Structure formats: structure tokens, C-alpha cells
């Protein structure tokens, strides 16, 4: 129903926000100034002792400086009474003595028909309840007894029985003078295709009335007593009263219980809702025989900001959970999310409560996992990410899901959460490969990390003069400077985390230190590292690192407070390591191609690789006597030049056969 222009403004002018709020709070007399309409109280939306909830009566707005709740009188009624917008307007209008606007004639006629249909379904409810107590319902009563539903529970949920006949309900309602179009319009009967009298929709079924938030019976769900029936559960067809995708079973009582602080639980079916409610989980609802819809999600979030989806732990339950995630991701907003409680396989809530008690169910609900964890589980469970391609496939799948989130803040937080989970998964795999105290094995991977292997060299390359001409020792020194600098400036670890993670670390102790620095930085635990790490790494690791002459004289290590020098040093050392790796890769590829005969192209590639490495070394603060000056003005390391010359001297420059 639409409201005429100016109605809400007039309503807000007639009511006092402080009076509306005052029914729910105790004002703080020390902070409040009633004459100015400046009122303070402990917030009614979260537990606190101080008065951080502020009401500006003149402007008609409230705001909590603790939980950031804000709004006007209508939003306050909606939140505290757990009602929708029009219901809140109606409550305030009655207080203000303002009559609610009348509907237009067409809308009034439609409303009147809906009222008549609701009266017909109410009559059907009483008919089904009476039938459950009569002869012919013995099997239904025995089933309810086996499921542990006491008579008072059956009365509370108004459970009934539809007898096994074609026109039992039809004849009953017709005999009460109900028009045929109303019986058909309420979905209680279906027209015959053979020209005969309409027949009942529900036959030989235990009946569960479905009510809207206002308490009106709008439809039914029926559980078949015949095991050979095609549909175990059958809902009313959609009518003017009933939209299956926009309704929830037990919505009204659940909304009331959630308003009193009970957690909102979403179960799969009628019996689950009844079992949970009887066990003390009164704020429990269920979708009506189908997967949760977008409209039902919005209904859930109007009741509680973070419903718990409690699904069976079997394959079907997990599939249902995954469908909910895909539906919910684009709809997420700040303060609106879902959590998931996965039950043990083979057990529904009713089975679990009867077997292990309500306390077990409470534990599962309290341990419900956030959506992001279940999303991660779907993409990673049973998978082996032992190759870059598989890791890239995982990254793409997760990125595609995160892109569905429209809220940029939530999207960013999901990205960080996924990064954390990915970090833990891959770092854990690497830690399994390296055990402190055991010698490093060449086949183990870079730095003792399994599944993260560096280039595999041709056997001839490993023994070549160029590769063995001190590169390993020089690489070790560069890695030592990087790690020692980061140890003194741990704030830089996050800035260089990608490069650090791919640091080869020819020394196993360095690999252990690298992993520990990354882990501690990732968890924000980088205070006083130099004093704490010896206990984590074992004796001698840091002492040996910092005692290296090349490390001890490094400005970035000596001047521990100079973060810019440290940043520049780490950047340069990584650049030099990259240049060295490029040269090694070129030599390895060239060695594999040589076979004793090479052409000018291979020779040129080797020369270019050596010059690239020498250019990276220009800034080295080492003894200039170790260098020659090339034709292009570049400093050339004599040892490396001589080693390269020895390799090139062994090559026959004969054209390679084509």
C-alpha cells in the first residue's frame, strides 16, 4: 500500500522520538538535557554500561557511538519490535492518533478477497486437526508418536491430517457454504479434467499449516503416509495468498524469538523446525520444499543480520549450502551475512537432538562457520595444488566468486580472507617438506620446500666452470643481507612478501628464517623479532647470519632505524638475484642445446646474459681491482669473465646442421 504525500512528515511531527525510545531505555540524567531534546542512554541494540546512545529529539534521529546504529522513529520501531515498514508506520500512527490511509477501491477489493481466502484456509486447518483425532488417522498418529511429537507440540504447531478420500475437505467446506471459487482459489482443491466434481489437493497426508508473519494461514505442507506416493512432501499451489519463494515456515514465531535475542536458524523441513523449536531454538524457520530464494534471504535478513543455515551433513546438504552461497554473494552488505552449521553425515536436526541432546546442537550452532570458509572448502576440498597451473586455476575460481560481491568493502575483506586461507594452505605444505636438523636434499625443492622446485639443470651444466664459479656463495650473501635487513626492519616484510616467498635460500637455515619471518608478519606479530626468533629457530641461526662480514658491514643492518636505506638495499639485492637467475637459466638452456656444437646465436645469448649480469653488479661496493672495463664502459668481473671464456673456448663454432 502506498502512503499519500506528506503522511510520513506529519507522523514524524506528531510523535516524540524520545518518548518512543524512552519505552525501551533508561535515560542517563547526568548527560541528558530534556529541555534541548538532547538525550543519552545505554544502547538498546548492544550490551553496554556507558551511555553512548544519543537521541536528538528536535531533529528526530538517534545514533549509537558504540555500534553505529542510527535512524528515526520508524526504524527504531522496526528494529526493536521486529516488524516491517508498514507495520511500524501503523504502530506509530495509532500512537499519534492518525488514521491510516484508506486503500483505493480496487486494492480494497483485492484485500477483501485475500481476507476471505485466509478465512477458508483457517477453516481447513480446523478440519485437518479434527481428522487427526478420528478413526482412519491411526497410522498418522503412530508416525507422530515415533517422531517424538507430544500432543501439546502437535497442538502448538496445529498439525492435522487429510483423510484418504477425493472430496473430504471439499464436501466439508461446501457444506459450510464456502463458495467453490474460494476453495479453488485457496489451493485446497483442483478442478477435474473429466468434468467431475473438483477433488482435494491433499489426501492421506499429515498436514502442517503455513502462516504468514501476521499469523494468517496462507497454505499447507503435507507429508505423505503412503511410502509409494510420488511426492513425500507436497505444498499448496501458489495462490493470491501464497508465494512459495517469498514465504518461510514458522516465520512469525521465529521473528518474535529472534527479537528477544535467540539466534535465527534455517533448517530444511517442517519436522526439523518443530524439533529445533521444541529443543529451545525457537527462532527456527525453513524454506518450503525448494532451495532458498533471493526473496527468502531478504526475509531472513529482516529478522536477523546473520542467520545460521543448519543443513544435513550429506552430499545433498552440502550442495544446498553451496547454492545458498552462490545466491548470497551478490546480496551481501555490511551487517548482512550467513553462517553454516553442518551436521554429522546421516543426521538431521531431529535425529541429532534425540540422539545427543540439545547441547550438541547448541555446540554446532556456536561453531557455525562463515560463508568464506565454506566457499574455500568447496574450491579446495579433495584437490591437490602441486603445480603452478592448479594454483592458478584455484586463484581464478576464487576471484570469479569474489567478483560477484557488489559491496566493495566486503569484497576487499573476502579477498583478504581468501589470501589468508591460501597462505595457510601453501605455507603448511612447504613446512611439511623441511624439517630442522635434517640435511637438505637436492630433490626436495628450493630452500627445502616441497612442490616449489627451481629450474632443473642439464647434468653438464651443473659441473660447468661458469656455474661453479662462486655463484652459490654470492647468492647466499645476497640472501643473507636481505634476511638480516628484514630482521632489523620487519615492517618491510609485508611490502616484499611476494619476493620473499620466492626467495630460493640455498642455506636451509635461511629458508627456516624466511618462513618464520613471513608467518609472523602475516599474522601481524613482528614486535621484537630479534629477541624472540632464537627460541623459535634454535641456537646459532641468527648469530651466524649477523656475524657474516658482508652482513655486518651492510648499512641497512648497521643503521637499523633507517627504513629508506633498508628498502633500497632489499630492492637492489632482489634485482641482482633476479639478474643472476636469468644468467643461470640462459646457461642451462644453452648447455642443453650445445651438444658440442653451437652456432653464433647461442654464443651471442651467452654473451648477452653475462653482460646483463655485469650491469646488475655495477653498484657493488667491492674492490675495483677485481674488475676490467669493457668496450662499452661496463665493469666486468674478472672471475666471471674468465669462467665464461673457458666455456666459450670449448665450443666449436661450426654451423649447426639444419
TrEMBL record:
Q: Which InterPro entries does the UniProt record give?
A: DNA_primase_core_N_sf, DNA_primase_DnaG, DNA_primase_Znf_CHC2, DnaG_bac, DNAG_N, DnaG_primase, TOPRIM_DnaG_bac, TOPRIM_dom
Q: Can the keyword Protein transport be found in this entry's annotation? A: no
What cofactor is this protein dependent on? Zn(2+)
Identify its protein family: Belongs to the DnaG primase family.
Q: Which GO terms describe its cellular component?
A: cytoplasm; DNA-directed RNA polymerase complex; primosome complex
Per the record, a Pfam family? Zn_ribbon_DnaG
Organism name: Thalassovita gelatinovora
The EC number of this protein is 2.7.7.101
**Which sequence ranges does the entry mark as zinc finger (CHC2-type)?**
43-67
Toprim domain: which residues? 262-344
Its domain of life reads Bacteria
Per its record, how is this protein called by name?
DNA primase
Region listing for Disordered, in residue ranges? 436-461
Free-text comment about domains: Contains an N-terminal zinc-binding domain, a central core domain that contains the primase activity, and a C-terminal DnaB-binding domain.
**Which SUPFAM superfamilies has this protein been placed in?**
DNA primase core, Zinc beta-ribbon
- Keyword Zinc-finger found: yes
Q: What does this protein do?
A: RNA polymerase that catalyzes the synthesis of short RNA molecules used as primers for DNA polymerase during DNA replication.
The cofactor remark states: Binds 1 zinc ion per monomer.
The molecular function terms in GO held by this entry are:
DNA binding; DNA-directed RNA polymerase activity; zinc ion binding
Q: Which SMART domains does its entry note?
A: TOPRIM (SM00493), ZnF_CHCC (SM00400)
- Subunit notes for this chain? Monomer. Interacts with DnaB.
Q: Name one GO biological process term.
A: DNA replication, synthesis of primer
Q: Which UniProt keywords apply?
A: DNA replication, DNA-binding, DNA-directed RNA polymerase, Magnesium, Metal-binding, Nucleotidyltransferase, Primosome, Transcription, Transferase, Zinc, Zinc-finger
What's the encoding gene here? dnaG_1
Name the chemical reaction catalysed here. ssDNA + n NTP = ssDNA/pppN(pN)n-1 hybrid + (n-1) diphosphate
Amino acid at each position: 500500500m502506498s502512503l499519500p504525500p506528506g503522511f510520513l512528515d506529519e507522523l514524524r511531527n506528531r510523535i516524540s522520538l524520545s518518548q518512543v525510545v524512552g519505552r525501551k531505555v533508561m535515560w542517563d540524567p547526568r548527560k541528558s538535557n530534556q529541555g534541548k531534546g538532547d538525550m543519552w542512554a545505554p544502547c538498546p541494540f548492544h550490551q553496554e554500561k556507558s551511555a553512548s546512545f544519543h537521541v536528538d529529539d528536535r531533529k528526530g534521529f538517534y545514533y549509537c557511538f558504540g555500534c553505529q546504529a542510527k535512524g528515526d522513529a520508524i526504524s527504531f520501531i522496526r528494529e526493536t519490535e521486529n516488524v516491517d515498514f508498514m507495520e511500524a508506520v501503523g504502530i506509530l500512527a495509532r500512537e499519534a492518533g492518525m488514521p491510516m490511509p484508506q486503500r483505493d477501491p480496487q486494492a480494497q477489493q483485492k484485500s477483501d478477497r485475500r481476507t476471505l481466502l485466509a478465512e477458508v484456509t483457517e477453516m481447513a486447518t480446523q478440519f485437518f486437526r479434527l481428522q487427526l483425532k478420528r478413526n482412519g488417522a491411526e497410522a498418522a498418529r503412530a508416525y507422530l508418536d515415533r517422531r517424538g511429537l507430544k500432543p501439546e507440540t502437535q497442538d502448538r504447531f496445529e498439525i492435522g491430517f487429510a483423510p484418504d478420500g477425493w472430496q473430504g475437505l471439499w464436501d466439508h467446506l461446501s457444506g459450510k457454504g464456502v463458495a467453490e471459487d474460494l476453495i479453488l482459489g485457496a489451493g485446497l482443491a483442483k478442478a477435474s479434467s473429466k468434468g467431475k466434481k473438483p477433488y482435494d489437493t491433499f489426501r492421506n497426508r499429515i498436514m502442517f499449516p503455513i502462516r504468514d508473519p501476521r499469523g494468517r494461514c496462507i497454505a499447507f505442507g503435507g507429508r505423505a503416509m503412503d511410502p509409494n506416493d510420488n511426492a513425500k512432501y507436497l505444498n499448496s499451489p501458489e495462490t493470491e495468498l501464497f508465494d512459495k519463494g517469498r514465504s518461510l515456515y514458522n516465520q512469525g514465531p521465529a521473528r518474535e524469538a529472534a527479537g528477544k535475542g535467540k539466534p535465527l536458524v534455517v533448517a530444511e523441513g517442517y519436522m526439523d523446525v518443530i524439533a529445533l523449536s521444541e529443543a529451545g531454538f525457537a527462532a527456527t524457520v525453513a524454506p518450503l520444499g525448494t532451495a532458498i530464494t533471493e526473496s527468502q534471504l531478504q526475509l531472513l535478513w529482516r529478522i536477523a543480520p546473520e542467520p545460521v543455515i543448519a543443513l544435513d551433513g550429506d552430499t545433498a546438504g552440502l550442495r544446498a549450502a553451496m547454492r545458498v552461497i552462490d545466491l548470497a554473494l551478490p546480496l551481501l552488505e555490511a551487517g548482512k551475512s550467513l553462517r553454516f552449521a553442518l551436521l554429522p553425515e546421516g543426521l538431521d536436526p531431529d535425529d541429532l537432538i534425540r540422539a545427543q541432546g540439545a547441547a550438541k546442537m547448541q555446540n554446532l550452532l556456536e561453531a557455525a562457520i562463515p560463508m568464506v570458509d565454506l566457499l574455500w572448502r568447496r574450491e579446495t576440498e579433495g584437490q591437490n595444488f602441486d603445480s603452478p597451473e592448479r594454483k592458478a586455476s584455484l586463484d581464478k575460481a576464487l576471484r570469479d566468486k569474489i567478483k560477484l560481491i557488489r559491496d566493495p568493502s566486503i569484497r576487499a575483506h573476502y579477498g583478504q580472507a581468501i589470501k589468508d586461507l591460501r597462505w595457510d594452505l601453501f605455507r603448511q605444505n612447504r613446512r611439511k617438506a623441511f624439517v630442522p636438523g635434517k640435511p637438505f636434499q637436492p630433490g626436495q625443492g628450493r630452500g627445502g620446500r616441497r612442490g616449489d622446485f627451481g629450474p632443473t639443470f642439464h647434468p653438464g651444466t651443473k659441473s660447468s666452470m661458469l656455474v661453479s664459479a662462486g655463484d652459490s656463495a654470492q647468492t647466499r650473501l645476497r640472501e643473507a643481507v636481505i634476511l638480516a635487513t628484514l630482521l632489523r626492519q620487519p615492517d618491510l616484510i609485508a611490502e616484499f612478501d611476494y619476493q620473499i616467498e620466492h626467495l630460493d635460500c640455498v642455506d636451509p637455515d635461511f629458508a627456516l628464517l624466511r618462513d618464520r619471518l613471513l608467518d609472523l608478519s602475516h599474522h601481524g606479530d613482528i614486535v621484537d623479532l630479534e629477541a624472540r626468533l632464537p627460541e623459535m629457530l634454535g641456537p646459532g641461526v641468527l648469530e651466524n647470519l649477523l656475524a657474516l662480514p658482508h652482513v655486518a658491514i651492510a648499512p641497512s643492518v648497521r643503521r637499523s632505524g633507517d627504513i629508506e636505506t633498508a628498502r633500497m638495499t632489499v630492492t637492489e639485492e632482489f634485482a641482482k638475484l633476479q639478474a643472476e637467475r636469468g644468467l643461470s637459466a640462459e646457461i642451462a638452456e644453452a648447455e642443453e642445446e650445445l651438444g658440442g656444437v653451437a652456432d653464433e646465436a647461442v654464443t651471442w645469448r651467452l654473451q648477452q646474459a653475462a653482460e646483463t649480469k655485469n650491469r646488475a653488479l655495477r653498484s657493488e661496493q667491492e674492490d675495483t681491482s677485481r674488475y676490467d672495463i669493457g668496450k662499452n664502459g661496463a665493469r666486468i668481473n674478472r672471475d666471471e669473465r674468465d669462467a665464461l671464456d673457458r666455456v666459450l673456448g670449448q665450443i666449436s663454432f661450426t654451423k649447426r646442421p639444419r
